[in-house]
Amino acid sequence: MAFGFLSGGVLFLCAVSFALSDFKSTFQQSPSLPQVPVEVECRDRSLFISVDIPSSGVEPRFEAVGPTGVYPVTVPGSHCGYTYSVDPLLGRVVLRASYFSCYTNNQNDEVFSFMFIVIITDERGGESRFNFSKACSVSYFSPRELTCEENYMEVSVATALFFPAASGVKGFSMPQSSVESWQVMLQRDGQQSNVMSPEDAAVLGYFIIITPGRIVFRTTFGQPYASVKMVSGVSVEVIQATVFFRQNWIFVMVDLVAACSLDQGSFDGYMLHWRTPAVMTPLVAPPSVLRSESISMGVNGELLDEQNFIDRGYSVTFSDGAIVCSIPIASVGVTRKSFVIDGMYHEVYAVLLTYQQDLVDQNGVDTKYSVFKQMATPAIPHIPFSINQTIPEERVFTVYLGDIPFDVELMSLELNGQEFSVSAAMQMGCSITRVPQDNNTLAYIIGVPFDAQFVVKQLIAESLFEYFLEIKWTLIILPQMEPYYYFSSLSAVVHDVFHDVDPPIFDSMCANNGIRFMKAYHDYDYLWDIVIGHYPLTQQLVSERGYIMSNDSNAFILDVPLFTIGYRYENITLQQFYGSFELLTRNVKTLEIEQSSKKYCLFQTTELLVCSAEGVMTVVSDITKALPTADPARTTLLDPSCRPQETDESRVLFSFGLNTCGTRFQVDPQYVTYENEIIFHEMYSTDSKPVITRDAAYRMTVRCIYPVHGTESLFLDQKFSAEMPGIGQITGSLMGKLICSTT
After folding, report:
1. How far apart are CA 199 and CA 205, in angstroms?
2. Least confident segment among 145-159, 207-221, 489-503, 705-719
3. Cα distance between residue 651 and residue 624, in whole Å
């Protein structure tokens, strides 16, 4: 549909000034229809409409409701000021409509009312129609505004610039006589200018609209008379359009030049970057100049304030006369989609960059330059890696499969051609551990005993056997349940002699900063696993938890530093506490615990934070390190009624349940964090009488962090249970650094 110049100010006013109630009378929501999952939001100079793609996979369609009927929104719809895009990462269709788009009820360039119909096709091909409307308000338009959308550029100029008498007069429109005599001149460097009527310009794809107070010019990219120029090293598409008319004895020319950066964005492996000239010089003709007044950036049509901008890690930099906008792919606002290509996991990150810049000429006239730019990374492969951690003497194949994205789950295992679900493999005697990593990924560690029925065993010499295991890992991407695979091949050679011997006996001793376990080495130690809690003692576990293990041909020594995972704490006071640690000996064939070695030690208390598996947080801290004048007796938790159990000249001891004393909690996909604060209240007055103020001079934050996996927390019933103690953190607001981090 050609939507060109509205050829009369009076006709235009008739088109936009009808009563909103009459508009709505042709457009009523059907109460019998279910509500469609649609989001409608007013954003900067555009209406955003987002609709879920239904299970049928057929993209929703839109119709615009105008004063004279209902009109299909054609794709791409740029001639009408519409941008239609499909976001496969979110499974949504997005329609953006300019405030000056077709069929919009414009009330004095202040209130813009939209009405649309969305058509949803179900799996049987049936269609349902859903109606919705939205009114958006604008308090101020700059004298000149340029919008660079994905599929069109739009520039609008205030009529008050060339009709000063109209400034501030609501409902002003240019006289009918002037509108009828309008001409459009299109220019391109090195070519002769072409003068034509607005109707002829519309045929070529250039559309001019008159609103109560503005002239709007819109065109798509790549049209005739468009030119591409290099401005500060950036490709810029420029359209030079001028409209002119005679008003009485005055001849008026209005420059409607539009210029947009053509930079498609780039990706450096961590961030998406987009470039635009620092000053869009094609917007003025010499000797006029522009200067940049302010720059704002955001995503999805919303500009960010300074703090959110910093928190998300966004950046705006200047380079050789160009502005570079950068967005980390791991930041808020970036969407991510994972999928399988050629049997390999891939992911794509995408974001709708929203950029706005205010430019001012030498006369103080402001130009607002706004950009909506969709950027995406190429498909990034994410290949796991495996480490063979098998120690033949332990008689267990141990494989570490790492760098697994957080949206992937181990579905099944094929062990030497026999396929098992994860639960079935564990019932067959395999150990499968899911380990979270620091970079938002996870790992799986599988242990397969040599004597499992599916492990291939081959005699290669007297009492010398070689064991073989082929593993096919089946991994699935959630929620689409899309599978991909990884293969591991393992072998081990061992002397396979079995005798009835007793499990090893550990000696233990207390040290200043932990507990030491020792035992002499025996030839048949591989018949037993050393277990801490539910986890076999492996080099991986030692590395993760900070234990110190030495194992040579003569002796085994394990040093367990205080506050590492596995300790239990009892009878904590400001002076001392008991810490205990237990090693279990498990038969590798029967998986039964045959011996326990447990050691209790008395330790002196300095500072600590204990997060128990029973849901109790105990903290001892010296608050005078941060605030020398602090009185420990004047401290509380977030709940002022929770006071310390003990204090001395510098330290406090608090012990409280995780669901008490005002403790806050936060849950993410991997961890649940409980947080409280130790607050010191100053007491002073002008007459030296104690007065408790409302403001706290010092706040110390204490946290307990538990893995979601293995934690049962029923907030309603105020119950808590975890497989193991949590990790604790203490930070003081006046110290500016971590005081300690303990378990």
Report:
1. 10
2. 705-719
3. 8
Q: What is the pTM of this model?
A: 0.59
- Split at pLDDT 50, 70, 90, the class of 734 is very low
Residue 97 and residue 49 in contact, taking contact as beta carbons nearer than 8 Å: yes
CA-to-CA distance for 301 and 658, rounded, in angstroms? 41
Nearest-angstrom CA–CA distance, 296 and 356: 5
Confidence grade of residue 20 (pLDDT, cut at 50, 70, 90): very low
The dihedral through the CA atoms of 195, 200, 204, 205 has a sign that is positive
Backbone phi, psi, residue 623, to 5°: -80, -15
**pLDDT at site 487:** 94
Residue with tokens 């030079």: 240
Q: How far apart are CA 597 and CA 592, in angstroms?
A: 15
Q: Which is nearest to 105 in space by CA: 95, 115, 96, 97? A: 115
Dig out the tokens for 242 from the structure. 């001028």
* Phi/psi at 525 (5° precision): -65, -20
Reply yes or no: is the peptide bond before residue 60 cis, omega within 30 of 0.
no
Question: According to the 3-state scheme, what is the secondary structure of 425-453?
Answer: HHHCCCEEEEEECCCCEEEEEEEEECCCC
What is the torsional sign of CA 210, 216, 221, 226?
positive
Specify the 3-state DSSP secondary structure of 77. Answer: coil
Q: Report the 10 Å Cβ neighbour count for 550.
A: 10
Quote the pLDDT of residue 500.
58
Average pLDDT, the chain: 84
Counts for the chain of helices (H) and strands (E), in that order: 7, 59
Pairing of strands 396-405, 441-449: antiparallel
Is residue 375's pLDDT more than 80?
yes
